[in-house]
Write a structure and sequence with these properties.
Length: 832
């Protein structure tokens, strides 16, 4: 119970004194009534005098009480004014709060690194990319054309990013073994359309910073032309063919959909893979209503397959056209059937007049919806720092890096000065669809093959990034003539979880003894990748006890299908008139390069099952009891595991040479938050490129040559013969006992859409990911060095009374009620 204020004590004291006087008088009256009958004959005057004395005392007491009360009201009001002024003055002097408009900043602070002295794992600086660009452009042997001027038949730079230095070199430098800082190199992807046999080649370029006179460039990967990633140049060529085809179909489009492509009533999108092997390259595209915001929800049922296998684009052609689930070899054949076949079933699907697909409509009619929602505050100042790519938070320290392939990654994550994870990076995001139209049956994506990293978006303040969040920018050079500046693509904030990280109510023999708990907060790093229709919300959370969590929740517009009739219901759900949500899955692949108490690590898969213990006299007659089985996994193949709740195994990564104080190997454990394993099978044509889907969890011995589990920019174009087949990492079956390990983790969900996916898929309860938790890593939970605890002693007889430690910071003092909601809305190509 809080201590009473001095004013409350004074008021209480005055009334106590008055009460005592009255009680004394009443006792004297009672005493007279106990007197003998002879004394009852005393005059009534004496009794009246006593009555008046009591009334007078009560009146005096009332006057004093009222005066005191008025004084209290006045002084309380005055105190309120003073405390408001004090709060305002404190607010003016709030330390770096991270609250826009307060004295903090929503931007990162100064970086400890620079282009002149970078961290070896840091992203390329814009200035480094400019130096590389100019050096390569002036290299006569490459004969490069600037991207914006290049045709597909030219040589041009498509992408560049850091070429990861060897881990051995980074650790030797980091750990102070008198080794020099690793030299940085870039990986540059160049299209060689001008070569007699065109190729895409990945080059290593450096050392950085390069100058025109001092750099080397040498090829490290050759990609067959047929597996080239899509470019602006190739899309422009497809656009010509599509425009021509839709032009021929204008009458059908007007009659079926109420408008044409030329009139901009229709638009289109495309799917992948573009064929299954290295002999074909074709793309299915489909017409959608060109409505504001949500064409992906309104596919029309008109689809084209364009063959762009030939090296010469003049030989590309429409290989198939589909209308209302019927495929025709030529456009002319479709037109003929449409006009002349009496049994031809025509679509009647104009753009809906009810804009159900728009989300800006606001109708705050729900009770209390007119009030502002809760907000985050940093009442005592921001407790984390963001200095360039380096983030620190209550013992945590890491670098944020990025890749155009799949987004942000984390390097050298340490907790209390010990590295836990050398690299945490999302690798792939499968989204494989099912349905009758080509738009669904041919859509078997890995969204990393669509540039998931370069699909970064500026986060919305107040939606994906709270008012206390610090925005960080990301720079990537991808599919463009210059580096792109993704403003505010990363949000970093400390989150109030509104829950205890630990708490307890202790009941002693004589009632409640004490209550205690630690308020849970955590640092969040968020990145959203909007791959066409879908928004992957990736949230990385760093908890106070050394745990960390990875979560992906998908939102955005579905890639809907056209609902033709009840036969479609086996592939999804009808969600609007002629619109269906098609069955698909979301499976994500993460690379986790754990270093637990050093780089020599072992996977201990701990099983739990019933066994018989006949010698135990305390067991029931069955003699059954659950027991643990520790399985130190010896080889890569043996580490393959699929999540199976009916046969539970706890996956831990331990260092068997590093025991904690109790002789138990220090380790971390994985909790997978996964709703489904992949249903893909080796019978599928694209399986080799998707073989990473086979398991929930695999451990491999770390190799520089096994940097990424997928290369879907290339392999989505010939998945049957991919450049990287993940299972090759595993099938050489090397020993993984006390080795430097990489854990490849898959988590997934099956999305059976429902009407509530309109207009936007909502996130609640759909997250998939995993948690890494200390598992005998410490000698006890690492919480004693935190302040944000409350301890309330109820039993004063306990020796612990007086140990009351309360998080007393007042939230209101540093809260800015009108945060800055400015939004750049830009991921500016060429802005650097
Ligand atoms: Cu989905």
């Amino acid at each position: 119970m809080p201590n009473p204020s001095p004013k409350a004590v004074f008021v209480f004291s005055v009334f106590s004194v008055l009460n005592q006087i009255v009680q004394m008088e009443l006792r004297s009256l009672d005493g007279s009534s106990d007197a003998s009958p002879s004394k009852k004959a005393r005059s009534s005057m004496q009794q009246e005098l006593m009555t008046w004395r009591i009334i007078s005392l009560l009146l005096i007491g009332a006057v004093i009480g009222l005066s005191v009360a008025l004084g209290v009201i006045y002084t309380t009001h005055k105190d309120l004014e003073e405390s408001e002024a004090l709060a305002a003055s404190r607010r003016d002097s709030c330390p770096a709060t991270g609250i826009p408009g307060a004295s903090g900043s929503s931007k990162p602070g100064p970086s400890p690194f620079s282009a002149a002295d970078p961290h070896p794992l840091e992203d390329l600086y814009p200035s480094e990319t400019q130096d590389i660009f100019h050096a390569l452009m002036s290299n006569a042997s490459l004969q490069l054309t600037p991207y914006d001027d290049a045709a597909l038949s030219d040589n041009f730079i498509w992408a560049m990013e850091l070429d990861q230095p060897a881990k051995f070199d980074v650790l030797n430098w980091r750990d102070g073994n008198n080794q020099p800082k690793p030299i940085r190199f870039a990986r540059v992807v160049i299209f060689h359309g001008a070569w007699a046999v065109p190729e895409v080649v990945e080059y290593r370029v450096g050392p950085l910073p390069v100058s025109a006179s001092n750099f080397r460039v040498w090829p490290v990967r050759h990609v067959p032309w047929i597996m080239r990633p899509m470019t602006v140049q190739e899309y422009d060529l497809l656009e010509g063919i599509i425009t021509d085809a839709f032009g021929q179909l204008a009458t059908i489009c007007t009659e079926s959909f109420g408008g044409t492509y030329d009139e901009e009533a229709l638009t289109w999108t495309d799917s992948s893979p573009r064929g299954y092997n290295r002999t074909e390259r074709h793309t299915w595209v489909w017409a959608m209503h060109n409505v504001d915001g949500a064409p992906y929800l309104l596919p029309t049922g008109l689809e084209l397959m364009i063959d762009h296998t030939d090296v010469d684009p003049s030989n590309w052609f429409v290989k198939s056209v589909a209308y209302n689930l019927q495929a025709y070899d030529t456009i002319a054949e479709l037109i003929d059937q449409y006009n002349n076949n009496a049994s031809f079933v025509k679509i009647n699907f104009p753009a809906p007049t009810d804009p159900y697909y728009l989300i800006e409509q606001s109708k705050p009619t729900r009770q209390n919806a007119q009030h502002a929602s809760p907000r985050h505050v940093n009442p005592g100042g921001q407790r984390f720092t963001v200095n360039g790519p380096q983030v620190e938070y209550l013992g945590w320290k890491f670098l944020i890096t990025s890749s155009f392939r799949s987004g942000i990654s984390f390097s050298d994550i340490s907790f209390l000065n010990e590295t836990i994870v050398y690299e945490l990076s999302q690798q792939a995001a499968a989204a494989t669809y099912s349905g009758r139209p080509a738009a669904q049956s041919a859509s078997q994506y890995d969204d990393s093959g669509w540039g998931m990293g370069a699909a970064a978006q500026p986060l919305i303040r107040g939606v994906a990034c709270p008012e206390t969040g610090v925005f960080a920018d990301v720079f990537m050079w991808w599919n463009s003539g210059n580096i792109s500046h993704f403003q505010g693509a990363v949000c970093i904030f400390e989150k109030d979880l509104g829950t205890p990280i630990a708490s307890h109510f202790n009941k002693g023999n004589d009632g409640l003894d004490f209550a205690t708990g630690i308020h849970s907060t955590a640092l969040v790093v968020r990145f959203i990748s909007t791959v066409y229709n879908y928004d992957y919300v990736l949230t990385y959370t760093f908890f106070l006890d050394g745990s960390m969590d990875v979560d992906m929740s998908a939102t955005g517009y579905m890639q809907a299908g056209r609902w033709a009739d009840a036969n479609d219901n086996q592939f999804g759900t009808r969600v609007q008139d002629q619109v269906m949500g098609n069955l698909h899955d979301h499976i994500l692949n993460f690379k986790v390069d754990l270093d637990i108490a050093g780089t020599a690590n072992t996977v201990d898969s701990i099983g739990v099952a019933y066994d018989t213990f006949p010698e135990n006299p305390f067991l029931p007659p069955s003699k059954l009891a659950k027991k643990l089985t520790h399985n130190l996994i010896a080889t890569e193949m043996a580490s393959k595991m699929r999540l199976n709740p009916s046969n539970p195994h706890l996956i831990t990564v331990i260092n068997t040479d590093e025991p904690n104080a109790w002789g138990v190997s220090r380790g971390y454990k994985f909790h997978l938050h996964s709703q489904a394993n992949s249903l893909q099978t080796p019978a599928l044509e694209w399986w080799p490129a998707f073989s990473w889907l086979e398991n929930s969890f695999v451990a491999t011995k770390r190799k520089e040559s096994e940097h990424r589990s997928v290369e879907h920019f290339y392999d989505m174009n010939a998945p049957d013969v991919p450049l990287v087949r993940f299972l090759d990492f595993v099938e050489d079956d090397e020993s993984i006992l006390q080795e430097d390990l990489v854990l490849w983790v898959n988590v997934g969900s099956i999305h059976i859409p429902s009407a509530e996916d309109i207009p936007l898929t909502t996130i609640a309860g759909q997250g998939i990911g995993f948690t890494l938790r200390p598992f005998n890593y410490f000698d006890a939970a690492k919480l004693e060095d935190l302040r944000q605890r409350i301890y309330i002693a109820y039993n004063p007889a306990r020796p612990s009374v007086g140990l009351v430690e309360v998080d007393t910071a007042k939230a209101s003092e540093c809260f800015q009620s009108t945060p800055d909601y400015s939004f750049s809305g830009s991921n500016l190509y060429g802005d650097h």
